[in-house]
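Whiteboard transcription, Tuesday session. T.W. wrote the structure tokens on the left side:
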């Protein structure tokens, strides 16, 4: 088995961040077992007094549709919108987008995100099942779900001008490696709101990104990764 590598990503304190590097999503069977075990352990290590929200990135549902579709009645997903805080606000297709698609480019209409609403136990089970597909976002937070999502709505709704996109039930941040690497000290507190840990599978980066205001190095090692010199680890 090829080991999975973890590296820290430099961000401004009090946050720390890391990328769990993989070759592609969905992760191959042998690697997905290791990846799920590690990330599940990391989330559990961080979640002692926190609440878990799990979101699915609809853009990547094809990576695990056979896992998702039979469980939709149990999971009761609610559809909202993912927002890139360091990019222009979401909007509907323009004529220029249609020309881009005619040239073969992939242009999502919007970054729809589905929130699992069936409670913490079901959310935790869904996360453990789907990690490695490239579609999951997990947020650990203190307080209620309403407080978390209300904070996100206060942050992101003012940036959205399209009327059809202003009426969705919730908004959630989408962060990639570039977002983290180019973030300023006051960005992450605003982008993450009440999140104490943010995890996103980022297919365009071939990585799982983790951002937290907790001791991330301790969490990585408690979850079973082995130090590989400096601020690097292996999952073997």
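and on the right, the sequence the group agreed on:
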């Amino acid at each position: 088995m090829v080991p999975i590598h973890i590296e820290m990503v430099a961000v401004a304190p009090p946050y720390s961040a890391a990328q769990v590097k993989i070759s592609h999503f969905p992760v191959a069977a042998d690697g997905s077992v290791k990846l799920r075990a590690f990330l599940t352990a990391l989330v559990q290590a961080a979640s002692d007094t926190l609440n878990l929200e799990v979101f699915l990135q609809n853009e990547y549902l094809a990576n695990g549709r056979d896992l998702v579709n039979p469980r939709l009645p149990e999971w009761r997903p609610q559809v909202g919108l993912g927002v890139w805080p360091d990019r222009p606000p979401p909007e509907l297709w323009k004529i220029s987008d249609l020309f881009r698609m005619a040239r073969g480019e992939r242009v999502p209409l919007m970054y729809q995100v589905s929130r699992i609403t069936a409670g913490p136990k079901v959310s935790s089970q869904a996360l453990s099942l789907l990690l490695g597909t490239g579609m999951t976002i997990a947020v650990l937070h203190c307080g209620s779900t309403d407080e978390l999502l209300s904070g996100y709505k206060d942050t992101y709704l003012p940036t959205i001008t399209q009327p059809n996109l202003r009426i969705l039930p919730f908004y959630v941040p989408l962060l990639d490696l570039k977002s983290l690497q180019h973030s300023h000290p006051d960005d992450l507190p605003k982008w993450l709101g009440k999140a104490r840990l943010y995890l996103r599978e980022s297919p365009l980066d071939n990585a799982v990104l983790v951002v937290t205001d907790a001791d991330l190095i301790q969490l990585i090692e408690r979850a079973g990764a082995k130090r590989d010199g400096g601020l690097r680890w292996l999952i073997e």
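Someone added at the bottom: The radius of gyration is 17 Å.
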